[in-house]
Amino acid sequence: MDNDKVGWAIYPETFVEVLLELTKRYKVPVIVAENGCGMGTGSDVPDENGVANDSHRVDFLTQYTAAMHEAIEKGADVKGYFVWSLVDNFEWGLGYSQRYGMVHVDFETQVRTPKASYHWFQKLIRGGPIGTYKNGKLPKELRAAYEKSREGI
What we know:
Blueprint: E1 2-3, E2 9-10, H1 12-26, E3 30-35, E4 39-40, H2 55-73, E5 78-83, E6 98-99, E7 103-105, E8 112-114, H3 116-125, H4 140-149
Parallel strand pairs: 3-5
Antiparallel strand pairs: 1-2, 4-6, 7-8
């Protein structure tokens, strides 16, 4: 089990279990309202070419969207999924010390820069492939999609 920079566990297998249990117990469609990971303030800063490479977030989102897909294949009634968060923002518990967004925000200048995760998610919602996440490894088709999504970023 991995952790993000905040110290929260990254365990997509449990996500599968939770989505299935919510469907079974409450018998209503599930909408995942917030799913994302926080990273420290220096981790997602655009480089001199304007590239904000948050590969850690792409890995996280790849694992969790694949886990969600696995849950759907097993019967979970998931009708919506939202990434936390579109842009870096102020968090009530942590202030500006963590970055959750797919778009980097320079809080001094307010300049916004789409991160690698933004481009990855954009391709995913436009019809990119989803595979099944099992035993802590990404299937070849998901890994290939992830690598392709990072081209030109």
